[in-house]
Amino acid sequence: MIINKFFAAFSQLISKTSQVAKQSLAKQNLIESEPMRLSKYLAQTSVCSRREAEKMIESGMILVDGKKVESNIPVTPENKIQVFTKNGERMPVKQSTKVWIFYKPIGMICSHNDPFKRPSFYDFAKLRLKTDQHIISVGRLDFNSEGLIVVTNDGELARCMELPETKLQRIYRVRVYGTFTEEKLKKIRNGVTIAGVNYGPYWVNVENRQSRNTWLIMRLESGKNREIRKVMQKFDLRVNRLIRQSYGPYKLMGLKPGDFYEAQIEPEIKRKLYLHTRKKLQNVQEQIQLEETKLNIKALDEQSKNEKQIEKQENDQIQKKKLIVNQPKKVQSKTA
């Protein structure tokens, strides 16, 4: 009820801030599309400092659109920029990409549309950020769960962080009600199968035991819908509190429910985004090569078919000529 009243009181502000946010976003997009010196661009996209960028340009460590650059040329986000260092290749993150950390309270959904008209995290976030741009939560927490949510305006970054192969660790504090035994703990660690779906294995430790409640610490590298609640229910345990403590390098760091702040894009995330983008690019290139191979095979098949048809026509003509040559000539009878 309190959250509903909060949203009702501030819902009128959303429409007012929306127009201002749109104008600000349009101005920001215009600025970002303007060319700037390569060293400045790399500094603003958190790859390195301007001085470091200038040294790397001189050393021939930077490619722009596949070509080595020898001077501090103007670039835009449209250019493909590759930076090669001793620690491997780096890829600039889009200038417009932002990341926020939010402590989602209980009683808020992570969805744009809800048939029950419950308070939405997205409405709250846009109001707090004073923006009308599209924002995305990295993963979700259900209505009765709380804790850290990573928020971004970059769909590719969100997708990268959610993928199981990225292996970003999520840590949860989970309070369960019911009889909790060492046998149950062992089974939870080994993982379970529910309705044909495999869950786990898990890293799980007991943090605190009470009379009927037990606090657990769980680590996951991917998350299915209501996964922890389903696993606990399998062992006759009811989750009565679930708090996400961290997601990859991002942690709650003493935040309280409803707190919201802008965070840096951590080096670990930049690296994983680069690898994700490179893999995606390789998949696209492989798909293009596959299509080209298919077209080449089809063209060769057509060519072979045409050659066989021409050969058949030539053979038919040769046979016809042979028939004409070998045909016996008619002898004309002499008339008396």
Automatic annotation (TrEMBL):
List keywords of the entry alphabetically: Isomerase, RNA-binding
Which Pfam families did the record assign? PseudoU_synth_2 (PF00849), S4 (PF01479)
Q: Where is the composition biased (Basic and acidic residues)?
A: 302-319
* Coiled-coil boundaries: none
Q: Where is this region: Disordered?
A: 302-336
**Its GO biological process terms?**
pseudouridine synthesis; RNA processing
The record's listing under PANTHER family reads: PSEUDOURIDINE SYNTHASE FAMILY PROTEIN-RELATED, RNA-BINDING S4 DOMAIN-CONTAINING PROTEIN
The protein here is known as RNA-binding S4 domain-containing protein
